[in-house]
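How a chain folds remains the central question behind the approach discussed here. This step matters because it turns folding into a mapping between discrete strings. The sequence in question and its structure tokens are set out directly beneath this paragraph.
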Amino acid sequence: MIFTWIKYKKPDVSMCLNASLAGLVAITASCDVTDAAGAFVIGIVAGLLVVFGVWLLDYKLHIDDPVGAVAVHMMNGIWGTIAVGLLQQARHLDMQLLWKVVQSRQKAYSMVVVSHS
């Protein structure tokens, strides 16, 4: 709300609600691999990105989006997906890779057992 108050010289409650939704959309992709600081960064960027997205769609691309749904979901969905790679914790990446190795070995062992029976 502070950003829209500075940019448009008046508070905009609907944009504040869209920014809250944008933060939820953006954090959904990386909620299991990020920490609180990463979630904070994702939410702040998403809140600012939705204001830019509404402006871009309305004034530059002339796309009629009366409630800002495209800016909330498309732009912040893309940001959330990019944020997974940028802000995930290394320990989660190691565990994901370890789990893939375990799964591949289980497949290999099950194929050996089936072929010997």
In short: The mean pLDDT is 82. Residues 54 and 60 are 10 Å apart (CA to CA). The first helix runs from residue 2 to 8. The chain is about 80% helix and 0% strand.
